[in-house]
DNA sequence: GTGAAAGCGCTAACAC
DNA sequence: GTGTTAGCGCTTTCAC
């Protein structure tokens, strides 16, 4: 197969020029006489030459690679040793229904951000190195991150996928751009790309009040320690206050971002006939749980109860009724992160960048009732 | 911020040893006296030293990075320049219902494979470099791949994401592992990881005949130029023949893997009252289209018509009824690809590996009717 | 066990 | 324009 890999020297010899010309011909073609360039190119593809990335990076002091670090806990379960075996058959399995597992959606979120990074990174002629930084303990994570940081020009880090101390360490070596959130004590220090949770929720509430003239709310909250959850709640309160509704009169139910808990809570409401006019949920999963409990209880959405979610996961769209939600531009989060990184790389001493991407309030049946229906079987 | 990055020399000086000892202490700690090792470690974290990946790779002649190359055409549409702007608001949008876009599922497939690669790559202490190899023309693709190939120890390539000629080029430099399919003329030459399309479909058909005693089939086929489609059809025929049904008596409808086309075709069947007992679809999207048309036409699934799909996309599970399908182990495809690559790297001169992952036949309501339902609100 | 020194393959002054 | 040369930061013989 791949015998000895040809180097600049081989190319230079083959073309009868110096290695400098070869290098120039590749980096700055216009600084080389067309004739020699042709010579060199001929030699290059005669030899099948490809420059060594390592050597280039070492000499040029830049790798052209951006690292993406996000920890994703989903995978831990089935992480047994994977052994290659060419089993020669198809298994059969009865597949009983089960609730959509909540963590699957996390994955979706990450996938989208990753995709955005890939996209933008590619557009700019850079490479992307990905690291999910799985289970490891704090020490392992730090080591993992350390390995990566030696290979990249900059590191994009998903919020809370790495301990703050490690972050500081990484940052001594390369620029770091945070996604979604930065260490609270140092918010001003990191470049940051995030999404306007607060404004999205505020807008949603204002819309509900203005359009549907409702004022009997309940809030289904996520975990107390989630910054997202907190910001959404703040936006919720702002929205209410801006319409002269006192947020303190609105009951909060804590469902920890969980379908099941939200479902139970709502069942209970239904049983007690204690149902608010609007149930604002801090994420889509909970909204789905709420909807199911309501529907099963014979409550109509949105005629009896308006339900809203947050995030814009795909289930919010496939559910019946579809859920009004605040959709996060996940893909663009990734793109923005890369763009920010590129700016930082070009301008190492600039002030910290902090950009906030707008969210989109998607009005759907769970709040608006029947919507315009076009394009039914149009899509041939 | 990140001032001068410390090097081995700095560490050596700080610790009062030679750079060789520093290097050894990192690579083969046991070859260094514990005392000096301690000295060195102290110096290392006093300086915040991180070895340069480029230099390591260059000297060690290996990068520890595996490249993943998959072209994904989904993104082309909205690929306008992305500019950073900190728009300070949330947009509102009426969001009318629309069919699940078919390409979204491709993405899902890629995401899963990618995730599998990431997982396995991480488990083995390697890094993963991803490249979606977007729109470029053939020449651009080749160049893109060329850039990547200089930075990695091996390249995992998704079937048909790169022209065959380029593949040959890449292969001169590093080992290449193909995913899903290899160039037909050279199938024996490439390491290959794939899925048993044929066996899966055969098993499915056999199950249907054996369990439901049906023999009145129709086959909804994908595009003629899809190898997957072809293999599935072959499996379909095999299954029938093994049960003494002549495949030639079974009508084929070509719906090009498209929801919409399958939908139209089925509507037509319904209108003409010309409906088979079983509709075997070459992928899930088409099965979904079929189901919708049948359900809208008042036909019961599976009592009147059994419908089956292929792939195991998430919609096959969220649909009502859930679709019996042959699920591909996408995640494991990625893991297997990385494993194969690692083996190849360790053993450059071994015979080409070709492994085939088993698929899983998931029996669900669209063929079996009511299934055991447990775990309803168990998941607290 | 440890140090000196020779590369790894490239880029970028600096001469010519 | 083109060639010469000195690194880039590390690994790895080879002596000691």
TrEMBL record, chains A, B:
It comes from the Bacteria. InterPro entries: HTH_LacI, LacI/GalR-like_sensor, Lambda_DNA-bd_dom_sf, Peripla_BP_I. Pfam families: LacI, Peripla_BP_3. Signal peptide: none annotated. This is LacI family DNA-binding transcriptional regulator. Transmembrane segments: none annotated. Residues 6-60 form the HTH lacI-type domain. GO terms for molecular function: DNA-binding transcription factor activity; transcription cis-regulatory region binding. It comes from Bifidobacterium aquikefiricola. Keywords: DNA-binding, Transcription, Transcription regulation. SUPFAM superfamilies: lambda repressor-like DNA-binding domains, Periplasmic binding protein-like I.
């Amino acid at each position: 197969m791949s015998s000895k890999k040809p180097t600049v020297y081989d190319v230079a010899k083959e073309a009868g020029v110096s290695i400098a010309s070869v290098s120039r011909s590749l980096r700055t073609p216009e600084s080389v006489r067309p004739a020699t360039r042709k010579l060199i190119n001929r030699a290059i593809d005669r030899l099948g030459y490809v420059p060594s990335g390592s050597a280039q990076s070492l000499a040029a002091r830049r790798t052209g690679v951006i690292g993406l670090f996000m920890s994703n806990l989903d995978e831990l379960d089935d992480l047994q040793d994977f052994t290659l075996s060419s089993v020669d058959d198809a298994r059969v399995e009865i597949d009983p229904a089960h609730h959509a597992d909540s963590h699957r959606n996390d994955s979706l979120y990450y996938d989208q951000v990753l995709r955005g990074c890939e996209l933008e990174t590619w557009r700019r002629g850079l490479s992307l190195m990905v690291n999910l930084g799985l289970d490891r303990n704090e020490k392992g994570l730090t080591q993992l991150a350390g390995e990566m940081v030696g290979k990249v020009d900059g590191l994009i880090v998903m919020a809370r996928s790495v301990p703050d101390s490690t972050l500081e360490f990484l940052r001594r070596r390369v620029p770091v751009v945070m996604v979604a959130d930065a260490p609270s004590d140092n918010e001003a220090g990191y470049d940051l790309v995030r999404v306007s949770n607060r404004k999205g929720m505020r807008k949603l509430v204002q819309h509900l009040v203005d359009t549907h003239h409702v004022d009997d709310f309940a809030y289904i909250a996520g975990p107390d320690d989630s910054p997202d959850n907190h910001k959404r709640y703040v936006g919720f309160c702002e929205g209410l206050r801006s319409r002269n509704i006192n947020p303190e009169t609105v009951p909060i139910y804590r469902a920890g971002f969980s379908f099941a808990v939200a479902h139970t809570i709502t069942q209970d409401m239904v049983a007690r006939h204690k149902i608010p006019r609007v149930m604002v949920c801090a994420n889509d999963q909970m909204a789905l749980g709420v909807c199911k409990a309501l529907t099963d209880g014979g409550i109509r959405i949105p005629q009896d109860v308006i339900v809203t979610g947050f995030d814009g996961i795909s289930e919010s769209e496939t559910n019946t009724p579809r859920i009004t939600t605040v959709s996060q531009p996940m893909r663009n989060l990734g793109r923005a992160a890369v763009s920010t990184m590129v700016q930082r790389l070009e301008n190492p001493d600039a002030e910290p960048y902090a950009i906030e991407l707008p969210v989109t309030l998607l009005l759907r049946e769970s709040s608006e009732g029947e919507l315009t229906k076009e394009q039914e079987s149009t899509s041939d």
